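User: Could you write out the 3D structure of this protein bound to zinc ion? I've included everything you need below.
Assistant: Certainly. Input first, then the structure.
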Amino acid sequence: MTTRSRAARDACKDVLSRISAYLDGDLPAPQCHDIERHCRDCPACTELTRGLRETIGLCQEAGRTPLPDAVRRRARASVQALLAPTAPQTKRRREQARPPRRS
Ligand SMILES: [Zn+2]
């Protein structure tokens, strides 16, 4: 075991269970303060909160701003490049032919 106490781990779980509401601004102020106080002492939760906030910001940004064509083309090319060597045409075709649900 590490030096982290069980109470500290429970506090992290508690923060994680409320993090989504916190980031959405749906938590009452006292609960927000709880989370912020916890994050001051907990690098893991601080990092996680920061990462989520960044991601949410990027998603909101992406929803507002259409991607420039060049970026879109580059993204598509990257995805295709990633798929190409490991997913041969025959495999992809078989997956597409698979019925949508299995009983
Ligand atoms: Zn924590």
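Residues 43-64 form the longest helix (22 residues).
User: Perfect, thank you.
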